[in-house]
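Pasting two entries for a bug report.
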Amino acid sequence: MSLRLLLPDDGVTDLLRDWPDEPRVYDRDQTVFDETVTEAFLGDYAFAGCVPAPEIAVMKAPGPSLNQNSYLTDGRVDAARLRKLYGTGHTIRLGNLQRVIPYMAALSQGIQQETGFSNYVHAFLTPAGEQGLRHHWDQQMAVIVQIAGTKRWPLWRPSVEAPMREYSESWRVWRPHYIPAWEAAGPEVVIDLRAGQSLLLPRGWVHNPHVADESEHSVHLTFAIRERTPLWLAEKLVAEAIKDPAFRRIILPGDITGAALVDRMQEARRALHQHLGKLDLADLAPAVREAAKTELEYRT
């Protein structure tokens, strides 16, 4: 039932059946989630001084994220300094709530049980009329859950195809002409996401979210859901090779550093073909399915 805390029935159906490749907005049914994860709940957490320092990011466009020293005192989060930064227009990002808040951990685990996809949860608190991050894209499907206020999301179609993990991350492949070109062309769509609504934002879609209202701040959660891909399945199949002693034998240093490397690679490829051909996929499937539902990833 975890996804139904974030999306109405048709949204859950769309996600699980179609995995949309274009943004979709839904009016959220009021559930126990909305009674539990409120603006006050997240504000108390943000400004109590107990958020793990590595899970905080403080940013105000167009500048980069601030150094941790801007909100730490004696190596610990300084709630007063963090609140002051928020008061001067900085967005506060609270990362990986599923690691530190039991309710969010249970929700995240429930989503993984439903989808087979690991996930993580960030919260963003943005002051009125301000912006944290500028144009970028993400590596996974995001369920954006607006808790308070309204966040404006100008969106552009992907500039790269199916970014994944470190491959084609925004900052790794960034080009100076991206933002001028996007702004000149104008967004594909502009969504004003209101409290009580959720947005499905597929991976790769460029977004430039900000609070347009000068009198109303915004609080939203991003549930980032890491899609399983054929590469993930291939990794599971290859991982079984460690059970074969032939794959655990030493390759001599001289073969790694010398001309024999290509020969060793060819031998490994032939052995891998044989290994894959001998696998009983029906026998292996339960273990792969269980891994999908329980395996944690720590890339964010």
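Entry 2 (this is the one that rendered wrong in the viewer):
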Amino acid sequence: MLILAIDTALDACAAAVLDTNAGQLIAQESLPMKRGHAEALMPLIARVMQSANLAFTSLDRIAVTTGPGSFTGLRVGISAARGLALAADKPAVGLTTLSAYAAAVVSQNRQAPVISAIDARHDHVYFQIVAGDGSQLVRPKVASIDDAIAASQFGAPHLVGNAARILSDRWPKDAPQPIAVDAQAAPDINWVAWLGAAADPQGTPARPFYLRAPDAKPAAQPPLAVATS
């Protein structure tokens, strides 16, 4: 299969083309950024597709990270994936950012549990815990940092994600210490692509995966003017 992978969920704008027959990415580009994904993404995808020497109709599917992450970034990536999939008449699949972080560690075939963690601000994190073989131990959720640490009752973990260092800095000294701390600003686009190849298009739609409502709230509507005679 040929898969176009897209990630704009966190502090990167990334795209890649995976050729599963070759067992590798045939083109990729990732730019670190906190803002500006909307302006950067489509030109970046165009460069990646040109580097892969492929037309969009040659793809078998499009994979995109669906959250948790920046609400604006998620909308940019998911909208692009859906639009390209519709134009090329190909399926679009969605993968959580937490699973993309964990996949890189699970691929190492270690026994330690893996905690993927993303900064949710306000002393909270989005997190999930999987076993070394990738089976779920704690489903994705949002919790305080202390509650996330307390949920780890499975031995010394491997911490990964942009909040990995936050958890590590608060880790209790009397608990089994993390065996590794990978504080990555964004998941590796390679693993977004491979998860996209393994995904079931019927069960993994390209739609936002939200664990809580956005911080920003719409402004209150002004009262209607009342005509007076």
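Dev reply: Rendering is fixed now. As a check, the viewer should reflect this: Residues 9 and 61 are 19 Å apart (CA to CA).
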